[in-house]
Structure formats: structure tokens, C-alpha cells
């Protein structure tokens, strides 16, 4: 069995002999290694057997035919061309593009991603990605605080998972204080940043301009849904200083939570506080336009313990996927996806309220909303699971956070209402 | 090459979406976006644009990639097919545990295999990359001392040869970095270590084999010194590819470890991620692992956990690729992989060390570091010049100028998935480049000469940043 090792056993022996070791044992002994491990794992199998084994595990997962759950992970249609392009081996098997001369493809791809994210969010600069939406929010904290401003205010409208990540990240930083607010907030001299999510975790579209006005000198950080930005005003046009969020909606499957895409954009004057990789345009010695990793003096491999973040590998291929997706759908397509998701969610909210599920959202919402469940939600969910429906996410107080996207149809929602009626 | 924005033409379309025949809802005017300028291209033009970019990219599948410390081994294609299975792609992270039994079982299998390989008692797959794993591991260390009433233990000892991510991950958690020197063999200097440890020591953070590609012969003495001083030992698994099935970090005194599935376990690097950085620990630290952990009934949360370090559980598809690899390799194959990684590195080194200076002349592990100071002194040709020269021969350069303790460093890691001929050719090219430094130094003016772009002006890029397309 090759096990992906190229040289045959005979060649390995020849090489060992040529080097004067005779055996691997001797080679490791000379390298100063006391070999002591006996690893108790199964012996290797063929590719066929491993694939069958993995396929059987995949089969044990249930793929719901009707998905109405979002809460940070969304089922959208991914055009075939996107999947095809991003599976090219040249992109998939490349390392971080340190060697610009042979990495122009990856670098230009990321440069285009940065440009598209700036356009979507209305900001000046974007990094090449961070791990996901939660870690993007956590990294944004470091961009806000300075010697005179230590306090971060997190809206309780932010996805609870993101808030948890922000708190974990900074629990041991002596000079960062994280506080939460519900609806309204007060800034003082110590306030470094105000974090809001738009649309928020419950789907509500919030008034970013009003947040900016109240924030005064504190930075305004908007956690945005990039898909919603096809319809709703860009945070950058409303005064946001930093826009971050989850980019999974842009061409990545739900895949049980990852890999996803954390994006971060900001204003020009804050670029040196932005963590992670950044690609810049420049020229080569013949004056030809080209791209390179730039502003690396911010990063851990130069600044070591003085760097604001340790991020090295990010989610480059996911960022690339988002760029391909955005180019594949274009401005009209992105609007169609956003608007259809918006229309379907509103239609669903109306149909649900007709049968006694009162909508909790008071103002405008995007493609998620909360309704009161008139019966025991646990019972309802049991019924829906049996009918191949993944219903909304159950919140406290028997409330449900529903989601609709362009993959849901009017007929499917009508059918869902009929199915729910069976247990009312 | 044109940017996607430059081939855009108004009104062109690629992907289209069904009309769901509901249009009556409207967003309030004041919230509505007026203008969005994204590329408009037809599908064929989109494909040609990106095929054009793919020709300007270089991956392991294009050629030899001996990038030290990055373990650019071949990425098996079956892994990709597994990761594309519908049963892994089309599941929501917040589905009830009873509907994702296969996913949980697969993750459990991977956790258990990684525990067995590293000699750890517990493992989380949650961190999304190596540095994220380091950050998580340092949180566990910090939490352990805070929870056990020793917040004064706030120093992390890190060798001067370490990756930049190590000190950065420690500092992000309010831990103070104490550097220790390397000794004449490239290992940790024991006297410096004895001086550095004390009542403020939280942990030692170590890569072994270290970034010089050398196995520290004093490793058990090192971990004993730290433990006796009351500190923990953290193992940076960046170089695990040298010792799989041969040495388990948990057996030689390490308490916490992170791994890089995208290095050691063959998942592709994707041009800079997605990776996966599992963190393992000994039983007494397991309660501090990030929320949630995978228990008998799915995800479980703990009061003593450090909390959550990312939104959902893990880079799931990356984990599925790594698990497939482990199944194919098995205990026999993983050991053979490490043996061959070390053999290939020593073989390549043996072919060039008569003309290039090796930083520490010892039997190396899976990688080695050349120091080109003498070449630079004699010819003016630098490590960067040699690295760029390799590009003219379609070999990806090694890691340059790292570790920082070696002047004019070039770090080669050939991995086990390269043939003897590939190593021979690389050696020949390196010898040729060495000759040129003496016989024809003019070659190095504007090197590389055959790539699609020549020497890239990084200084202007940083001085006048152009970070997005402007019309």
C-alpha cells in the first residue's frame, strides 16, 4: 500500500543505506529520538474502504427536506459554477501566498474579495478573512480599545454565540471590559466601542445611523449579514467604523458549522489596526500591475507578542468562494436572493400569524423573525421533525426564531401551515 | 490580467434564481440600499476569468513545495470527495443531536484517534486554525491557574526559535512572554530555562522537533524542570509530522497540545485556510476545554469551561478530511509517513550540505534550516535570492528568514509525499544556484526571470496601500 508515500520500500532502504543508517530505527536514534510510542489505532485501509466508512457515517445524518432554521447558518442555493471553480487544485492546494511571483492567482482572487466586501459594507478596506462571524466580532474589540478607552458595549440583539465568543476572547485581558445592553445604551469617557448586529439575531433591521449618533466618539461596530446588504443600506454609509460578520451565506454549505467565513472591513484610517492578512496592489519591476501581501508589520510573524492578534491561517478559500459567488450572482442576483428571502419570511410570518403564531418583531425584519408558539413548541417540533421539517430555533418562553430563504417556496410555506394546523 | 470588475458589462448575468411569486412586501424607504456595484458577468466569462487566475496559482498539485514548518504534503483526493458528501454538507449546526449521529460519531472518532496519537486524555476539535488552537490552549492554561487560585502565574516561557504565533497567542491572554535562548545544539538551553522558571511560570510553550528541525534530546528534562517549578507544558504540534507513531507528546511531559490538521493530516491549505487546530489536554485540564465538548449525548457544556472560541463547533468538513486520511493511513501508515518525512529531509540535506551551511550540523527530523550568511558575505547573494531562484525552476521556495535566530535562514520541509527524483532535482537546482552565486551573480539581478510577474515592489505596496479596486 502506498499510503501516499512515493518511494517504494526498496527505495527507502536504498536511501537509508546511502545515508549510512541502515534502518529507520537507527536514523531516529541518531536524531536523538527515543522511540517509545505504540499507538493503538486500527491498521490502515484502502481508499475504497475509508470512503465507504465515511459514507456510512454521512448517511447516519438526517438531511431535512424543509429547512426553516437559520440563527447563524443558512441554507441557500450555491450555483454549480461556484463549486466547480473553487475546487480547482491550484487554489485548493496552495499555501498562504507569501511568494507573490507564483501566487498572483490567489492574491488577485483575495484582492477581488476585499474589493467586493468593501463595496457591500460601504467601507474602505477589508482583510483576507478571519475564522468566522464570532471570532470576527472578537477581533474587532482589539481595534476599538486603546489606552484611554477600555469598555465595549455589546447589544443583546447580537447572536448569543457571537457574544459568548467575544467574552471568552477577552476574559483574561486586564484592560478590556465587556458589558451588554438591551435596546438603549449610555456611553462614557471609557467607552471604546458599541457593537450592534444588523439585522439582529431576531431578524430586526436596526437604525445604525441612530446608534452612530448616540455613540459619540466611541467606535461603532456593525455585525452585518452580507446578503442583507443587497437590500438594506450599507453600514459604512451610516457611519459604522468597523463592519464584521459571517459570510457563510455567500456560497458555503451549512456543513454542520464550518468552515465558514469571518469578514472584517473598516475605514482607511484604521487599517493598521485591522488584524490578519491584507492583499495590496503594486507593480513588479517591469511596471506591470500585480498583488502582494502587504502591511505585514501589523502581524504576529513580525511583531510577535506585540501583535494584536495571533491569526495566521485564516479562511482564504472561503473568502475566495464568497468572491466567486458574488461575481456569479452579480448585483441583480444578490438582490434576488435577498429579496426572495425577505418576501418568503414575511409571507411566512403572515401565514403563521393567521393560525395564531403572533409575530414578536415590532419593526421591519429581514429573513428571520420570532413568533409566539400557541401550543407547546416541543410537541409541535416533534410533529414537524416527523414530517421532514427542520423548524425554526426554539428560544426561551416558547418562542420560535424562524428563517426563510430563496430555497423556500410559497407552496412549501402553505404546506407547512397545513402541517402545523394538524396539531393546533 | 484583468480584474473581474474590468470584464463586467452592465446587464450580463450568470446565476439566476426562481421567482417565488411573492412581491408584496416592502422595506421602508429610509432603510433601503440605493446602489450596489458588483461585477456583472456571464458564466463562461466567469469561468475563464478564474481559470486564468488558476494558471497564476501554485499549489502542491503543481509542483514541489518544501515550505518549512508548513508541511505541504500531498492532499489526497478521496478526502475532498468525502467532504462533498451531502450527508456532511446539508446538515445544520443546530439540528437535534438525534439527527446528526453520524457527524457526532465521526467527530468522536477523530478526537479519539488524535488523543491516542498524542497521548492526551481529552481533545476539542473546535479551533479553526493552528494559531486559534494556541490561543485556546493558552486560555486553558490561564484558566487553570486562575481557577486553582494562582493568578500570579502569568508568564509563558517561549524559546527564541518559536513561531510568532506562540508569543502572540500568549500575549492575547494577558500572559507575559519570557524568551529562553537556544543552546549550541539548537535545543532549549537548560540553564536559561532553570533561570526563567519560577513562581510566576504558567507554562512553557515548545515545538519539538523545534523550528530548526531538531529533536530536543533533553525533552524529558525540560518538561521536568517546568513541572517542578509548578508550570504546565504546552506542545505546539506544528511539527508533529516528524513523530507520529514514534513519540507521543503526552508521554514526554506535555499537558496541553494543539495540532494542525492542515499540516500533519493532509487537509489542503486553500491559499491560507480553512485549517483546523484541535487542542488536546491531560485529564486534569479537560474541564476547561472550550464549550461545547462532544459527550455521549451530543454537545455538552461545562461550568468550568473557558467558554466558546468560535460560533459553531468546528471546521467540520476539514475534520472529515483528516479523519478519512487517518483511516487510510492507520497506525502503520502514520508511522511510515513520519519515518519517510524524516528520511526525505535528511536525504535532501545530505545532497547539499557540502556546499550550503546547515544551521546546526546534526541529524535533522522532518525539516532543516540552512544559514546562508557565508554565501552572502562571499557573494552578496542572499537567502531571498536563492529562494527566488528556485522559482525559475518551478520549485516553491522554502520558508525564508525563519527562525529568527539563524541569519539568512532557509527552512526546507520536503515531506514524505515526494519522490527521490524530486529531491535529487531540488538538490541539483540548489547546487546550480549556489554555483551561479559565484560564477554569474548577475543572474540574481531581478530574479526570478521566468515567472508571470517579476520582482514585486512590496515597499510601495506598504507605503501607498491600494487595497481594493477603484474605478
Jot down its keywords:
heterodimer; A: 424 residues; alpha/beta; Aspartate Aminotransferase, domain 1; Aspartate Aminotransferase, domain 2; 3 domains; seven-stranded mixed sheet; three-stranded antiparallel sheet; 13 helices; 14 strands; globular; B: 471 residues; 10% strand
CATH architecture descriptor of the largest domain in chain B: 3-Layer(aba) Sandwich
Tally of DSSP helical segments of chain B: 14
Proportion of helical residues of chain B = 25-40%
Q: What is the terminal-to-terminal distance of chain A?
A: 60 Å
Number of strands of chain A: 14
Number of helices, where a helix is a run of at least 4 consecutive DSSP H or I residues of chain A: 13
Number of domains of chain A: 3
Number of strands of chain B: 12
Per CATH, the class of the largest domain in chain A reads Alpha Beta
The rounded Rg of chain A comes to: 25 Å
Percentage of residues in DSSP E strands of chain A: 5-15%
Let me know the largest β-sheet of chain A: 7 strands, mixed
Q: What would you call the quaternary organization?
A: heterodimer
CATH class of the largest domain in chain B, named Alpha Beta
Runs of chain B in which pLDDT lies below 50 for 5 or more consecutive residues are none
Strand-pairing-aware structural class of chain A: alpha/beta
Order of helices and strands of chain B: HHHHEHEHEHEHEEHEEEHEHHEEHH
**Poorly predicted tracts of residues of chain A:** none
Taken from the alpha-carbon principal axes, the silhouette of chain B is globular
